[in-house]
From TrEMBL:
Transferase is among the record's keywords: yes
Record-stated family: Belongs to the FPP/GGPP synthase family.
Pfam families with a match to the protein in the record: polyprenyl_synt (PF00348)
NCBIfam families: FPPsyn
GO biological process, one term: terpenoid biosynthetic process
GO CC annotation: cytoplasm
Organism: Acetobacter lovaniensis
MF terms (GO), sorted A to Z: (2E,6E)-farnesyl diphosphate synthase activity; dimethylallyltranstransferase activity; metal ion binding
Names of required cofactors: Mg(2+)
Keywords: Isoprene biosynthesis, Magnesium, Metal-binding, Transferase
Descriptive protein name: Farnesyl diphosphate synthase
PROSITE patterns: POLYPRENYL_SYNTHASE_1 (PS00723), POLYPRENYL_SYNTHASE_2 (PS00444)
Organism taxonomic ancestry: Bacteria, Pseudomonadati, Pseudomonadota, Alphaproteobacteria, Acetobacterales
Classification via CDD domains: Trans_IPPS_HT
Keyword Magnesium in annotation: yes
Length: 309
């Protein structure tokens, strides 16, 4: 396998090309999810319908896009990387379904539509989330994802670490425990590195795992993903304080109403934006060895902090 040559690229963001690429890859990811979650007419039809409702027809596919685009740096066939992207999007969807439940964030809207528990019911939403989580790992374990069992095991292990108690789920617990308390900045950074950052970090790293990249290039994509995850969460904090519910597709202003410690609460809106710019530049610096091959990933870094939803 040919490794990318080291060059330094300084360039302006090409938003049009990024949006075109994201749209094309989102279509591939969407069709892959559709094929991996086919509707049924049996006793489990309502469950499958809820799973499909939670995953299809919405969202930026940021995590899936990261996985496919990072994998493309190493010549990985899209038929393989799209499966990894689909698994990440399924697990992300499960986390949103559970986040929206009354016992968690209690939100009736998601992506401009009723949350899964409002569209169906709470019990069905819980089961749909559970089933999406297990389906995500089942996809990674299949030989269609990669011929090498070692690669599949690496994907599964890294995915489990990013999504479990040491990652996304642990971050959600810290977030719940922190409501109504003033957390220091370092603790807020840690909270969001787990709750949001770990799955985004994994999505970028998964491309390197699929491509059987060198340890250095894998480390760089992992660091890129971690910084993108931080930037994404800071941008979310800013949007929660400044965007409308129509722009967000979900309830706005919930962080302040819930008494959560956020980057905006601690740094103010301008300070939060400066922090987002700092970690975005750190992410871009990690892409230097990939040269122009990583232009869309550079564009994505800026898109993450400039988006309005």
């Amino acid at each position: 396998m040919t490794e990318p040559t080291q060059t330094t690229i300084i360039r302006a963001t090409d938003t049009a090309l990024l949006k075109q690429d994201m749209s094309a890859r989102a279509g591939v990811i969407e069709s892959t999810i559709d094929a991996l979650l086919p509707p049924t007419k049996g006793g489990d039809a309502r469950l499958i319908d809820a799973m499909r409702y939670a995953t299809l027809g919405g969202g930026k596919r940021l995590r899936g896009y990261l996985a496919v685009t990072a994998a493309s740096l190493f010549g990985v066939p899209e038929s393989q990387s799209a499966r990894v992207a689909a698994s990440v999007e399924m697990l992300h969807a499960y986390s949103l379904v559970h986040d929206d439940l009354p016992a968690m964030d209690d939100d009736d809207m998601r992506r401009g539509q009723p949350s899964t528990h409002r569209k169906f019911d709470e019990a069905t939403a819980i089961l749909a989330g559970d089933a999406l989580q297990t389906r995500a790992f089942e996809i990674l374990a299949a030989a269609h994802t990669h011929a090498s069992a070692d690669v599949r095991i690496d994907l599964i292990q890294s995915f489990a670490e990013a999504s479990g108690a040491a990652g996304m789920v642990g971050g959600q617990m810290i977030d719940m425990e922190g409501e109504g308390r003033a957390l220091p900045l370092d603790e807020v950074r840690h909270l969001h590195a787990l709750k949001t950052g770990c799955l985004i970090r994994y999505s970028a790293e998964a491309g390197a795992i699929l491509g059987q990249a060198s340890a250095d290039l894998r480390k760089r994509l992992r660091a890129y993903g971690a910084n993108i995850g931080a930037a994404f969460q800071i941008a979310d904090d800013v949007l929660d304080a400044t965007a409308t519910a129509e722009e967000l597709g979900k309830t706005a202003g919930k962080d302040e109403a819930s008494g959560k410690s956020t980057f905006v609460a601690l740094l103010g809106i301008d300070g939060a934006r400066n922090e987002a710019a700092r970690v975005t530049e750190a992410a871009i610096a990690e892409l230097a060895p990939f040269g122009a091959q990583a232009d869309r990933l550079r564009d994505l870094a800026y898109y993450v902090i400039e988006r309005r939803n």
